[in-house]
Amino acid sequence: MRHGGLQGRPELMRRRHLIELEDQAWCPAAVRRGITDLLQLFLGLGNCYAAILPRLARALEMSGERDIVDLCSGSGGPWLRLLPYFPKTQLHQVRFTDKYPNATASRDLVANSKGRITVEQESVDATAVKNLPGLRTLFTAFHHFRPDAARAILADAVRERATIAIFEFTERSVFAIILFCFSPIAVLLLAPFCRPFRWTTIFLTYIVPVLPLAAAFDGVVSCLRTYSEAELREMVANLSPGGYIWEIGQERSWRSPVPITFLIGYPRSSAGPVAELGAAPGVALQPVGSLRATISLAAPRRCVWDRWATQSLFRHQGATCTSSEQPQPQSSRLYGC
């Protein structure tokens, strides 16, 4: 797929759908478990997805949902770190789903979530989600899909009139690729702290260093697979003309040198009046507005830095845009399609 970048700038590199080792049927189970455990540990320690808390809170508010259906959950993603920010009155439960459910990896998450995480035991295809009401989310998963399948995921949400929120902490940029080339160092430092503890992870890290190399390879490939903002806009351009609001952009924070790319879509009927902010001819934009009342900051004491960072985000996004003279937070753009 060839696309021009934002504001007429050419993209530095084309998207390439190369193979990721952990996706392959021939990948040994010990290697796949090691990679997913390391990713889970990284997401837990860095909590990089805290940057999108205001947007996730707003998506819940716009959808009117109190439950989330997390698609392509794998080992669980960032939910144990995100859930404490939401009171049960706002977010009751998160249901993990996957085409190939990982019951073993999810068991600990369910036990530590105080009943707020459940696991769908049946296989769930993200392109055809049936009989699972709730706001749909995908974390660090959308880049696994080729363009036709990725578009089918969005089309299924539109067909079911479901709100969908997609977040990726990878980016198709030279800087992100260089950064992931250093991931073997992180693997060597973090491997002993993976939970559940596995001797195979230790063996494949320090004796036969498969995991450090595999993590670097899959990290670089994930960056090359990640969709740009321009590609995401093209993907939603012809979905439900006039019926959906699409929010596309990036969030940056001190937690991660690589910005979080997001795509959020919700039915226009739930969005209220759409403000024309003059970003581009014929493009309808929705002001972000104040989110202070939509999310609880009563996180555990150990998350004092998380609370500070989230409060800073709310301060940054607190003013409601009412004219083209007021800039939107970060680089978000919302498109009425």
Q: What distance separates the N and C termini?
A: 21 Å
Q: What kind of sheet is the major sheet?
A: 8 strands, mixed
Gross geometry: globular
Structural class: alpha/beta
The helix-strand sequence is: HHEHEHEEHEHHHHHEEHE
Q: Counting H and I runs of at least 4 residues, what is the number of helices?
A: 11
How many β-strands, per DSSP? 8
Can you describe this structure?
- This protein is 35% helix and 14% strand.
- The chain has helices at 29-46, 53-63, 79-82, 103-112, 147-159, 174-181, 183-190, 199-207, 210-225, 229-236, 304-316, and strands at 67-70, 93-96, 117-119, 135-139, 164-168, 244-253, 256-267, 333-336.
- Helix 6 packs antiparallel against helix 9 (210-225).
- Mean pLDDT is 80; it is low at 1-9 and 273-331.
Supply the key terms.
337 residues, alpha/beta, 8 strands
Topology of this protein?
Blueprint: H1 29-46, H2 53-63, E1 67-70, H3 79-82, E2 93-96, H4 103-112, E3 117-119, E4 135-139, H5 147-159, E5 164-168, H6 174-181, H7 183-190, H8 199-207, H9 210-225, H10 229-236, E6 244-253, E7 256-267, H11 304-316, E8 333-336
Summarize the structure.
This protein is α/β, with parallel strands linked by helices. 35% of the residues lie in helices and 14% in strands.
